[in-house]
Amino acid sequence: MSQQTIVPDATVTLHFAIKLADGQVVDSNFEGKPATFVVGDGQLLDGFEQALLGMKAGDEAIIDILPEQGFGMSNPSNMQRLPRKQFGDMALEQGLVVSFADGSDGELPGVVAEFNEQMVTIDFNHPLAGKNLKFEVKILTVE
């Protein structure tokens, strides 16, 4: 059986880690069960999928993912100022994740960026937006 390379629609099983530029691990499954996905099914961001194309079972790599290929750039229009009274007695602190209802009854997480007695600024950007990431992979199988 010839070694199949990763192409669109291939089923890939891999171990991966996503790390910040300083080495802090954001997500990893090296300690646990490997992940299986189909290239193009939307489970992985395009930038991560593109980086895997052409790799084979047994390949290992550490790939630099720029914000444009990962979670995008931080968008200033995703910063919203809300009245402090809307948060009631909630103890606020910078970095606190707060859930809001979105227009379709889903939940939209936001991060408290700054606050004072009158206003709270919430950042609705993805926490990894604007960050350079390292994508560490070990390809187990390609079908």
Task: Tell me what the structure shows.
- With 143 residues, the protein is mainly β.
- It folds into two domains: 11-71 and 129-142, Roll (Chitinase A, domain 3); 76-123, Beta Barrel (Thrombin, subunit H).
- It contains one helix and nine strands.
- The protein has one helix spanning 46-52; strands at residues 11-20, 25-28, 35-38, 60-65, 79-83, 97-101, 107-115, 119-123, 133-142.
- The strands form two sheets. Strands 1, 2, 3, 4 and 9 form a five-stranded antiparallel β-sheet that branches. A four-stranded antiparallel β-sheet has the order 5-8-7-6, with no helix packed on it.
- A hairpin with a 5-residue loop joins strand 6 (97-101) and strand 7 (107-115).
- The longest helix has 7 residues, at 46-52.
- The termini are close together.
- The mean pLDDT is 94.
